[in-house]
């Protein structure tokens, strides 16, 4: 349900934007990257399992956002941004595999929901939209990996039809702690 608007989302319920709509917002990719940075920095600082030990820099997130938007424009990815009551509340994206033999497949790379916005169904809405985008793009298998202690995320993914296909025990190192790395997949060919 991407919006094609020149104005930022205003108050109300949840609004999801696709990559094209994000690029058309006032401030475009730069403002979205700043919002994504704030969300990621807050979550990583609190210990969220998002792949960073320390919050990423604003420049690192800006480069990431530009890369995801480029891949989305070429049909090799999808980005969804969530706004709750007119404020950025979360985002997620998937990227198609680059290898020619793996082109029908994509990884759900990141899903992040701001702490203050959690509990409003944003993670489910983003995931559902990204799955729909993957189907529309002809993706056959959507994969992801998650840290084994991220029970809420794993519960969400499994409730959406993902199944675990592998696990690396104690693979993720966060300082002295070790966590399993869980691999899950959603076979879109079966729908």
Written account of the structure:
This protein has 191 residues and is of the alpha+beta class. It has a single domain, classed as Gcn5-related N-acetyltransferase (GNAT) (Aminopeptidase, 3-Layer(aba) Sandwich), CATH 3.40.630.30. It has 5 helices and 7 strands; from the N terminus they run E-H-H-H-E-E-E-H-E-H-E-E. A 7-stranded mixed sheet has the order 1-2-3-4-5-7-6, sandwiched between helices. A hairpin with an 8-residue loop joins strand 3 and strand 4. The longest helix is centred in the first third of the chain and has 18 residues. It is globular, with a radius of gyration of 16 Å. The two termini are 20 Å apart. The relative contact order is 0.13. The N terminus is likely disordered.
List key phrases describing it:
191 residues, alpha+beta, Aminopeptidase, 7-stranded mixed β-sheet, globular, disordered N terminus
């Amino acid at each position: 349900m991407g919006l094609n608007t020149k104005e930022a989302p205003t108050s109300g319920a949840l609004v999801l934007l696709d990559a094209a709509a994000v690029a058309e917002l006032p401030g475009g990719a730069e403002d979205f990257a700043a919002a994504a940075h704030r969300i990621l920095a807050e979550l990583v600082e609190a210990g969220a399992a998002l792949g960073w030990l320390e919050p990423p820099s604003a420049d690192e997130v800006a480069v990431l956002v530009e890369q995801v938007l480029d891949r989305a424009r070429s049909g090799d990815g999808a980005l969804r941004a969530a706004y709750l009551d007119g404020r950025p509340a979360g985002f997620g994206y998937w990227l198609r595999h680059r290898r020619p033999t793996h082109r029908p497949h994509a990884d759900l790379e990141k899903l992040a929901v701001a702490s203050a916005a959690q509990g409003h169904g944003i993670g489910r809405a983003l995931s559902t939209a990204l799955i729909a985008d993957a189907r529309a793009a002809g993706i056959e298998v959507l994969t992801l990996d998650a840290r084994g202690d991220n029970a809420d995320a794993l519960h969400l993914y499994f409730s959406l039809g993902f199944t675990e296909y592998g696990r690396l025990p104690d693979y993720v190192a966060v300082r002295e702690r070790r966590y399993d790395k869980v691999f899950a997949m959603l076979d879109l060919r079966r729908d």
